[in-house]
Amino acid sequence: MTAAALSSRHPLDEEHLRDRVGSALAAFLAHQDSVLADIAESLLPVAEAVREFLLDGGKRLRPGFCYWGWRGAGGADCDEAVAAAACLELLQASALIHDDLMDSSDTRRGRPSVHRHFEGLHRAGGWHGSAEGFGEAAAVLLGDLCLVWTDELYFSSGLPAESLLRARPHLDLMRTELMAGQYLDVLEQAVGGGSVERAGRVLRYKSAKYTVERPLQVGAVLAGAGKDLLEAYSAFGLPLGEAFQLRDDVLGVFGDPSQTGKPAGDDLREGKRTLLVALAEQEGTARDARLVTELLGDPALDAAGVATLQEVIRRSGALEEVERTIQRLTDQALDALDEADVLPRAREVLRRLAEVATRRSS
Amino acid sequence: MTAAALSSRHPLDEEHLRDRVGSALAAFLAHQDSVLADIAESLLPVAEAVREFLLDGGKRLRPGFCYWGWRGAGGADCDEAVAAAACLELLQASALIHDDLMDSSDTRRGRPSVHRHFEGLHRAGGWHGSAEGFGEAAAVLLGDLCLVWTDELYFSSGLPAESLLRARPHLDLMRTELMAGQYLDVLEQAVGGGSVERAGRVLRYKSAKYTVERPLQVGAVLAGAGKDLLEAYSAFGLPLGEAFQLRDDVLGVFGDPSQTGKPAGDDLREGKRTLLVALAEQEGTARDARLVTELLGDPALDAAGVATLQEVIRRSGALEEVERTIQRLTDQALDALDEADVLPRAREVLRRLAEVATRRSS
């Protein structure tokens, strides 16, 4: 469909875009279904699992920032731009599937994680060998599949080749940064005793750049934006992305399981070295710092242990400081957005996306 | 460097190409080193591990078929084509790193596998948490990194955008087939009792298409080849790829560890449902079939167990039949190559690559 044919649609807001991203993903996955079915029927569970993972809601934040980055740079509304932006959801699916595997998480959005789902298929089938090993292998491969499909959706989106090739290095850098940030995250958990500074670096690369800044820039470069807008998007996107991740960190410790779809205190059990934890260690009493060392990352941490760590994080002032930081970063981002030379409707939606990213409860 | 400037180089054979693929990879990785170093110094071990994995020899078979597929289609010799072909080595590295993780293999080419290497770093550092878990996470992420770098090297190779975009769907399909084939392989090991037919499908998708047919076709489409040459490359590449994988299967059971860099009988311990195994079960006595069921896939299988299974595979006639099949498939491939409308020098080198692929001992 051409941009002209679509102009009557008025995708007024981010809710509408979410549906369109879902449709673009559904169309792409329907094509992949037939590719997989041509190879073997026994690939059906793979196609199904990817579809369930991708089409089961989600905030579509990264495609949102990419698409509105495009619109803000003067790109016309069109399904092609939505499809290109939707590829970031495949990247995110890959990251989450592999992340859940690395963290041995049992659930994702209130449902079994991919490795647990395939472990369940193995058990139900009474198959040979280790059910756990089968689940892990399936998760490695499904994550890989989503990762290679990222490019395929991007390049088959229908946007002009010139645009796609121009923005590609930004997409590449974004992915390298994501993998690097994830490695640093795992490394911090292993090395332990991380500083506030090191926690900040993980946050920046694993999440902040990847969630807001780079998607905005990919959208902008697709639309042919120059250096000034890219810098403006950084000035908006980097603090906002950091605020997004800090909100995530708070939810990982204090979130309501019925909203987050994750068990309470999951990040504490996994030993995530977040800024929240680093501040609690730095600002808390020596006794509290010892409690952190002792309890953080204990896979068997029970409700009482979670409550203890929550209390330590509260009374050290870390929670309050992180909440203040979220507010400060969000204000800084919104100020930068006011200054940015973007089209008015995009500014309005980006402002609302900033709300979604920082005030959410899931 | 332009094609013209290079025409005096006369890359006469596949050995020379191996060096050039190594150089292209080295240059690409040097660039990524600096990207990673800009993020954090602690990413150094990641960059080093990828470099060691990629620059430590290897047969460079897939880039070889891709490059000579290009030359056979009339593409001029140039560093750009070598760089584009070299991207397949990054894909292969990703597949091997993740494969070793899924198979819990301790070694690769006689050295620790990536997950074991990082497990060792964790132990040496006396870090927190599970050393095994850290090794696994690092291997997931390094494999992901190599996978995304596949595209980056492809698109930054310097070949004309038009060529790159034209061949991209073939590269995409190749990767989907690879992941699908790997899943089918894992599934066969789990479900067990696989038929000769099902073993053949795994072999085709996991390896045959991916190792020979698709690389040749990517090269051909990059050079602008038409349907006839793609079909001729299939007629050559598919049987050759199957022969390649059957040779691999034989080496996985009977290979000399000093040559393969893998412990003797590793495939038996991992429970790989190869054609060799399927034939032994089908053609052997009922008692031998029971021995296969009992011993195959036992992680603790000792030298005596390996010898027993080797003997079962021999006396069932499976080994002989597989060797005959390798010969038949290779002959079929070479006949197809004789018929194909490719340039003479490419035909000559492709013939030698076919030898390397099917008569190797490692």
TrEMBL record, chains A, B:
Keyword rRNA-binding appears in the UniProt entry: no
Cofactor (UniProt): Mg(2+)
Record GO biological process: isoprenoid biosynthetic process
Gene Ontology molecular function terms on file: (2E,6E)-farnesyl diphosphate synthase activity; dimethylallyltranstransferase activity; geranylgeranyl diphosphate synthase activity; metal ion binding
UniProt-listed Enzyme Commission number(s): 2.5.1.1, 2.5.1.10, 2.5.1.29
A Pfam family: polyprenyl_synt
Keyword set, alphabetical order: Magnesium, Metal-binding, Transferase
SUPFAM superfamilies according to UniProt: Terpenoid synthases
Family designation: Belongs to the FPP/GGPP synthase family.
Name of the protein in question: Geranylgeranyl diphosphate synthase type I
Source species: Allostreptomyces psammosilenae
